[in-house]
Amino acid sequence: MSQHIVWRDLLTLDPDDLELPWQVLRAGVDILPIHGDVEKGCSSALLRYRPGASVPQHLHSGHEHILILRGSQADQHGIYRQGTFLINMPGGSHRVVSEEGCLVLAIWEAPVKFL
């Protein structure tokens, strides 16, 4: 197994590229796992939100790092546009919605728990 994983050109990645193995996370939200297992522990993935899609209220059991690569998303704390880097702390809870759609890089220290 390789000692490192390299993903190039994330800023120009076409999220609709038919060769990418997207999986359905929720209605309107797809996930492209990069590393780890989102159900078990430390992991990272690309998330693709279709316009109007949302992720229901969930609790962070560890740190969550989000980089908005394209579009925007919002929660009860504000609206986050392309280029924004967010850190959601353990114990925090929120619901995410993307009115225009977005592509984000997500890195989780531990799995989230949907409420």
What does this structure look like?
It is a single chain. By secondary structure, this protein is mainly β. It has one domain (34-114): Jelly Rolls (Sandwich), CATH 2.60.120. Strand 5 and strand 6 (78-81) form a beta hairpin. The chain has no helices and ten strands. It is 0% helix and 55% strand. The strands form two sheets. Strands 1, 2, 3, 5, 6, 7 and 9 form a seven-stranded antiparallel β-sheet that branches. The protein has a three-stranded antiparallel β-sheet with strand order 8-4-10, with no helix packed on it.
Task: Describe this protein with a few key phrases.
115 residues, mainly beta, Jelly Rolls, 3-stranded antiparallel β-sheet, 10 strands, globular
The first-level CATH class name: Mainly Beta
The main β sheet shows up as:
7 strands, antiparallel
Computed Rg: 13 Å
CATH superfamily label:
Jelly Rolls
Fraction of residues in β-strands: over 45%
Q: What is the structural class?
A: mainly beta
Query: Unreliable stretches, pLDDT < 50, 5 or more residues?
Result: none
Give the % helix: under 10%
The DSSP helix count reads 0
The helix-strand sequence is: EEEEEEEEEE
Characterize the overall form.
Answer: globular
Secondary-structure arrangement, i.e. CATH architecture: Sandwich
What do we call the CATH topology?
Answer: Jelly Rolls
Number of strands: 10
Mean pLDDT: 92
How many discrete structural domains?
1
Distance between the termini: 36 Å
